[in-house]
Amino acid sequence: MKKNKNIIIYTILAGLSLSILSCTKDFNEVNTDPLGQSDVNADQLLAPTLVNLMSTNMLRNRNFNNELMQVTVDLGDSEGKTFRYDIRRNAADNTWNNWYLNLTNIVDIQNIASKPEKLNKSYQGISLILQSWVYSLLTDTYGDVPYSEANKGKDGNYQPVFDKQKDIYLGLFEKLEQANNLLKDGTSIVATSDPIFYGDVSKWRRLGNSLYLRLLLRVSGKAEVSSTVIAKIKDIIDTNPNNYPIMENNQHTAKLLWTGSNISSALYTSPYMASVRVNDFYVPAIGEFFINNLVAWNDPRILPAFGTSNINRFRIRPGTNGFAGVPSGYVPGNEPAKQSNFYSASDNAVLSLQTDPYTGIVMNCAEVDFIIAEAAAKGWVTKSPQTYYYKGIADAINYWLPNIMTGGATDPAVIAYADAADIEWNNALPLQSPSASTMSKMLLIHQQKYYALFLVDFQQWFEYRRTAYPILPMGLGLLNNRVMPARLFYPVVTQSANPANYKNAVASQGPDVISTQVWWQKP
Prior knowledge:
By secondary structure, the chain is mostly helical.
């Protein structure tokens, strides 16, 4: 049988060879797509790449991050429930494949914009920012990953080495320094190519430096780099703010504004509409932790009075017990009754996050506020932690409800809100919480940062792994020794396609399991 199969294959190949040899000299001309292009410009790659990245990030935020971080609970006792830390190995594939695929386009943008005939410093800088963003997602999700040799398949490198996370971070810092310098000139770009800032290069520069702060803070706890990164945080915030402009208000927030269309084929249709069936969008229940705080604080984002047509801005449907959630990590066999959930487009397309224009968040101003608040609370910068704590609350709420707290940190509305919710700033509090029942400055900051990071890829998960805040209830039904997963597995295809480098990475980093901490998590 095997011999017969080989004869058939050889016959087909021989036929193909004869066909090729018999073609005329006009073969290339006849078989060239008259509508396609053999050469592209940087501006042609930017928008579709950003849409693809945001689609990956938003869908995985919904079904992975939100389940881990108790925003939602996909009720049931079957295997593979993420909220229970029962992570299947194939959960790693989607983000790995899509992030690396789109990095090819991002690197191409830099290469094209570096050619003498197409030279554009702004596209080069934007590419470096996007590379830093995507590589940070990769390394914070998996740990050591291909970096220095990644995306070099065209050069014949199909088995890239896995770089150590420390080296990746140092490389990202270099990229972001380069991006800041490249974007200083403000070289114009095609506005229609940019669905994030519509051609405003100065805002891209603010995004790059804000991302720089995020990544510096993430590794600030590592003794081997802490002094250097803390000094750089001070440089950006205190010493040379004019050289490192950052996000200062919601006009600087990086978001891909969806059209609100329910036409799945349209370019700027939200992936929640394009890729999630309307009858599935409301399936997960809202987690108790996520909704209980909003209710207790009388948060405007959950109050129908501040929404539209009596539907709150977070588009959460009340359950039989009103705005109530279900406990995450419940013991199997004790499934709670479903309460609140998110409205779907089948309820009202306009009043659902499924078609909401504002869900495509790359990075928002409130996150930057809380980064500064943390750095100030730790004594690294001279800013007021209280000021940036209140500004973060105001900017986070104003993103969803513009003009509710127009004065930011000085608006009496934000002070009154915090006082009434019993989350007011108190300089007398300790920096860290000695126990789960003790309030602290870090707990205050990260409770609010958790809500500011709502829908932002895996940032809630990353920040929890870095800080252990906010303090999540750990149900008795959780696996992994009731410890938050520290990473995702490496994809199975990578293990088989790049076995030697995979084994080297595991030998260096630790077992390929979800409990193995990445470099910046390790003591």
